[in-house]
Amino acid sequence: MSEVKSLQMTGGAVSLGGHTIWRDATFTIEPGSITAVLGPNGAGKSTLLKMILGLVPLSEGSLEVLGESPHRGNRRVGYMAQTREADSVSTMTGRDYVGLGFDGPRFGWGRDKSKRDVVRQALNLTGTTTFADRPLHSLSGGQRQRIALAHTTVFRPELLLLDEPLAALDLAAQSEIVDLINLIRDTTGAAVIVVAHDLNPLSPIVDQVLWIARHQVRSGSVEQVVNEKALSDLYGHPIEIVVTPRGRRVIVGLEEEFAHPHPHGHDHSHEEGHEHFAEVYEEETR
Questions:
Q1: At CA 13, angle to CA 11 and CA 16, rounded to 5?
Q2: Residue 246 belongs to a domain
């Protein structure tokens, strides 16, 4: 009997407000794999995660999540949303926040030993025990992201969805989070889907790339998707990829895409992502 796939989409399409976001998407996520989801803001990356969570329906095609139709409240699927500004001012401790992953709004520890044990295991897995009893507002951005990962992994999900876990972190903190994502995958065997703007920090651990742009979803290995021919075909104009001495990819030719985000998107921070590529390249070639 063949192994159940973590995710299987065939001919998938999604429309919002009468507009097609993307169409004809066919790809598979294997158990224990790490997939990076890339592309401009507004192209439908976060929408893909919402579909997997059962929050947004397909308009065409089929989607199976861990062998089932996607549905709300699936504890086999863990989800880490984009960092919220409120986290930086919250007086809640990291341990209490992780505890919310156990029972949601039913806040409080009481005598629930099973909850304490599960939370302790999540803190140990993510290496956050030493600062778990500090309020969230006192933690660095990287520490808050580690706590968020602990919160997401309380029930050891089989599929882990991470929406921009590297956003607003410096390169050192990004590297720590990438190592932690890899550790979680290796320890739990979960498949991981990571939405990101920049492939470079993730490239050492990524097995597959989904690139969403121009109403299309391209899937394959890094080499199959993030190359000059594939991206030039996708965007309909020449794309150049410069590899720095440290092996980082600088994508040249997407200036227009960064300057003018997807017409149906809501986030207009493409230029920041492109500037980051340029900054990395300048630093490494000095």
A1: 175
A2: no
Tens digit of each residue's pLDDT (9 = 90 or more) over 180-227: 999 999 999 999 999 998 999 999 999 999 999 999 999 999 999 999
User: Do the beta carbons of residue 46 and residue 264 sit within 8 Å?
Assistant: no
159: tokens are 């599929």
What does each C-alpha distance from 137 to 40, 84, 128 come to in angstroms? Answer: 30, 12, 15
Structure tokens at 4: 């159940």
Domain that holds residue 119: 7-223
Residue 230 falls inside a structural domain: no
CA 156 to mean position of chain CA atoms: 17
Closest among 107, 91, 110 to 99, alpha carbons compared = 107
Domain total of the chain: 1
The count of other CB atoms within 10 Å of the CB of residue 147 is 26
> Does a structural domain hold residue 86?
yes
Does the residue 55 lie in any domain? yes
Q: What is the Cβ-side half-sphere exposure of residue 14, based on CA atoms within 13 angstroms?
A: 27
Total-model pTM: 0.85
Is-contact 62 10, C-beta < 8 A? yes
Residue 132: CA count within 13 A, CB half-sphere: 23
pLDDT tens for 54-69 read 999 999 999 999 999 9
Task: Write phi, then psi, for 45 (nearest 5 degrees).
Answer: -70, -50
Tokens 């876990």 appear where? 165
Q: Which CATH number covers residue 45?
A: 3.40.50.300
Token reading at 14: 């999604």
